[in-house]
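Help! Submission page says 'invalid entity' but I think these are all valid:
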Amino acid sequence: MKGPFVMAVDVGVSNVKAALIDRHANLAFRERRDLDLEQGQSVVARELVEACRGVLNAADLTTRDVKAVGCAMPGCVHPEDGVVVASATQFWLGVDVRAPLEAAFERPVHIEGDGNAAAIAAYHFGPTQGQNHLLGLNIGTGINCGFILNGKPLRGSGQAAMEAGHMPLFADGKDCSCGRKGCWEAHAGGGALRRLLADARAQGQPLPELPENLADRARSGDSAAIKIWSQQGEILGLGLAVLLNVLNPKSVVIGGGFAESWSLFRSSMIKTARGRSLGRNAESAMICFQEPETMSLLGVAAAASAAQGRADFFVDAPGLIGR
Ligand SMILES: [Zn+2]
């Protein structure tokens, strides 16, 4: 694959993905590493740099060859200093990954929250390109959201808006990674589904350990697996109905690893979201991002190229995102 490339990094709760992305939004030379958070913030931050170096080595490029560098973080990020100001995972609070990345690349590096990165991806690529009132959801282990209003992510007074994964949806709900109970993502999404499968297996139910294997079973017609995916769709739709009523988005675009199983939860999610929201709020389009697992990487690549004066990097993308 030929350059030029933007370097995009997507930090998850305990892993990192790095990739080079070309002007047609194709990903090349991807790398994924697990992160050992027990090693502390500075060691983990350096791991991100090593993941980038691994990708560059595979591509036979150096840090000077990329046109822009962006990194999506698990939580909300202050747009000025790039530090994580809110995250369900305590470890990431206050982490500055920008400094080590900027030192390695010898240039400015753009840091963005993963929810905003999802919304920015929807704003730049695909059928919702350039739309206003655009809701992006990245569903992986947790549920990360961003909302584009007047061409910019909605950030809130403390830069911590759109933590919708932690809206308390159930008064007596399950324990959440944030330390509270009944949050949306404690009941839906990849982490919640893994726990559901673990609990069911502990009770002797013949279910697989991993959501992707449950998806395989559902696709081959297993009724128990189909039912679990449908129920996941209902819970996703319940939270989505809240967001539709509050934000009245024109479109909702869903990506992330969980959305690789879009066809298995799509209809129950949309039915619930429409049935539980009011009037005009139920009219939002709800679609899946192309290659859902790449949503954060593409979003932060678009944000980085715009922030670093290369708004025209992506062919056929408006590149108009502001801060
Ligand atoms: Zn929570």
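Support: the input was valid. A stray whitespace character was the problem, and the output above is from the cleaned input. The pocket of zinc ion is lined by residues 88, 166, 176, 178, 180, 183, 186 (CB under 6 Å).
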